[in-house]
Amino acid sequence: MDIKKILDDHTLWSETGGEKGARAYLYGANLEGANLVGAYLVGANLVGAYLEGANLEGANLEGAYLKGAYLYGANLYGANLEGANLVGAYLEGARGILQWQSPQGENRICYSVKAEDCVMHKLGCFWGTTDEAVEAIRKKYGEGSLYEEVLILMAKCLEGE
Prior knowledge:
This protein has helices at residues 3-15, 64-67, 130-141, 146-159; strands at 97-101, 109-114, 119-123, 126-129. It is α+β, with helices and mostly antiparallel strands and 161 residues long. The chain folds into 2 domains: 1-95, 3 Solenoid (Pectate Lyase C-like); 99-161, no CATH class.
């Protein structure tokens, strides 16, 4: 799979309203460790990209919005984001993922992703299911914390999609 060509074609598709190029269809693509920082500057644009089930483990999307690698409207259902760096990424309108700020006063961005049979959560260096995330949060902050409530709310929102 030629990722650069797919991303270049997708940028053209996005910029021409679908008249030219082709929408990125990266179902199950292995983007493990991919460096997408500044990708737009070299032709990538992930607006509306289909990334369902893609492996983004360890991918670097830090500041992607500021650098132009937009994820607006992308489909990320079931994508593996374990170890992915999404600090500053622009996720508004992306389907299957919610980005949220840790409510405990920590400067931490968290992500909740809808998988096939569950919701997965990225909390700092933690990656796991809702039950595992609740357990980890309770260990650190105690039962019934605001952090736990927000996480459960995010899971419910994604489960209802």
